[in-house]
Design goal:
binds magnesium ion; nine-stranded mixed beta sheet; Rossmann fold; 19% strand; binds adenosine-5'-triphosphate; alpha/beta; elongated; six-stranded mixed beta sheet; VC0802-like
Length: 417
């Protein structure tokens, strides 16, 4: 029955000249999310609001106006699917509420009364509820003013459904009736994901492994409006093609929220083997991680990223003690964002289940870090000692890093279909 959605967004960050940037980013992400959903849609920005119109077969194609050229999106071959559409919108950061709207033509007050009764009847099978009508007139030539509309529509509803009662202060149902060129009726506000629209907060480079944590870290940073690129270090033949595919799959889930992203796949084998050959084995993980950070930063700087993002959390493993984090941090000049730094594992698992990455993350494929891991890795690396031990790698490691950068594969990740 619904013919449109009114999108509510938090006012924070939407002031002054930022407003159109915020709204444009939001519309872009809405179109990205709904392009995979059954139906055909257009977005419309009017008077500080965003509407998504569902195009139905009876409709005349909606008209473009000069300011907002029309872009139709969605999967035309499939019928409009309400649940799928709402699920898609719930992945668009910046949306605080999703209101399903019914449009009706203005055929006089009597018809409007019938439309409102029909709306109430279909949306609320159980009528033992309190309500109030909130009328608004964007078109001032309507014969009744808002006070009259509130009172008269309220009366029509009470007559139709004796179980309803009015509560103007804390109603269970707030029935909005907006008089525009058409009349818009809506009452539900389905919660959106909150956050800021992706693209309003710059871009960051996510170190994405096949584990549970890093996809969650990517999701969390993109919730603040940051768009992403990602880098994955693989070590063939020690890590399999399937392990790589798992990371691509995880990137697809992250992209559902973060938008399309580039995944840089870096071959880390020769670097790992060389470190293994030259450095004390209990320091392998730390030194490897320092090279991961250096390479990630090099790609980040080249691609306009403003920071690195990892899934690290204090004390989770040997390489995530404060001392180890200090050691991996010191090789970077870009800020390293660690959204999970103070999260317990279970809290991270909960989010990964919410964003559907958990089942993929727990597939048992080898990770390059675990293959060369020592039995007793240092947990409190001494910064000076690590630096000295790294020196034996000399110029050859720079060459290996250069080759790794030159041979990286870039995969375009567009989100799941
Ligand atoms: P995750 O669950 O994200 O794999 P983890 O608990 O296994 O994390 P580590 O293996 O110590 O922890 O990795 C810490 C962080 O380093 C990861 O969250 C990720 O950001 C990055 N990282 C680890 N391995 C790789 C890899 N092969 N490619 C890219 N980034 C990696
Ligand atoms: Mg890992």
């Amino acid at each position: 029955m619904f013919t449109a959605f009114l999108i509510k967004y938090a006012e924070i960050g939407v002031k002054g000249k930022n407003r159109h940037l915020f709204e444009e980013a939001l519309v872009r992400q809405i179109e990205f999310a709904l392009d995979k959903v059954g139906g055909q849609f257009v977005t419309r920005r009017t008077q500080g609001r965003i509407y998504i119109d569902v195009i139905s077969e009876q409709d005349h194609p909606p008209k473009a106006d000069e300011k907002h050229p029309l872009k139709v999106f969605g999967v035309a071959e499939r019928d409009f699917d309400f649940d799928e559409t709402v699920a898609g919108l719930q992945k668009v950061f910046g949306i605080s509420g999703i209101c399903p709207v019914v449009y009706v033509e203005d055929k006089g007050f009597e018809e409007l009364g019938k439309d409102v009764v029909k709306f109430m009847d279909e949306v609320y099978p159980d009528k033992h509820k309190t309500f109030k009508v909130c009328a608004r007139r964007a078109r001032k030539n309507y014969p009744k003013d808002t006070m009259e509309l509130n009172a008269d529509l309220g009366e029509v509803l009470l007559n139709a459904f004796p179980d309803l009662s009015v509560d103007v202060h804390h109603p269970e149902i707030e029935l909005n009736v907006e008089i525009r060129e058409k009349i818009y009726i809506y009452s539900q506000i389905i919660p959106g994901p909150g956050g800021m629209p992706v693209g309003t907060g710059g871009k960051a480079m996510l170190l994405l492994s096949g584990g549970i944590d890093s996809p969650v870290a990517g999701y969390m940073i993109s919730k603040r409006g940051v768009s992403l690129e990602a880098v994955y270090f693989h070590a063939p033949p020690y890590t399999s093609e399937r392990a790589k595919q798992k990371v691509v799959d995880l990137a697809e889930y992250v992209a559902d929220y973060a938008g399309p992203l580039k995944l840089h796949v870096v071959n880390f084998t020769d670097i790992q083997l060389y470190i293994y050959e030259k450095c004390p084995h209990d320091e392998l993980t730390i030194i490897m991680r320092r090279y991961m950070m250096r390479i990630a930063e090099a790609i980040a700087l080249e691609t306009g990223c403003l920071g690195l993002v990892t899934g690290e959390s204090i004390g989770q493993v040997a390489s995530q003690t404060m001392q180890a984090l200090m050691s991996t941090n010191e090789v970077c000049t870009l800020p390293v964002y660690r959204p999970l730094i103070a999260f317990d594992k279970q809290d991270i698992v909960d989010i990964s289940e919410k964003i559907d990455t958990y089942e993929t993350s727990i597939q048992p494929y080898e990770d390059c870090c675990t293959i060369f891991v020592a039995k007793h890795p240092v947990t409190k690396p001494n910064q000076k000692v690590i630096r000295i031990h790294e020196q034996v790698l000399e110029d050859k490691i720079d060459e290996l890093v250069k080759t790794a950068l030159e041979t990286q594969e870039v995969i375009e990740v567009k989100g799941r279909k």
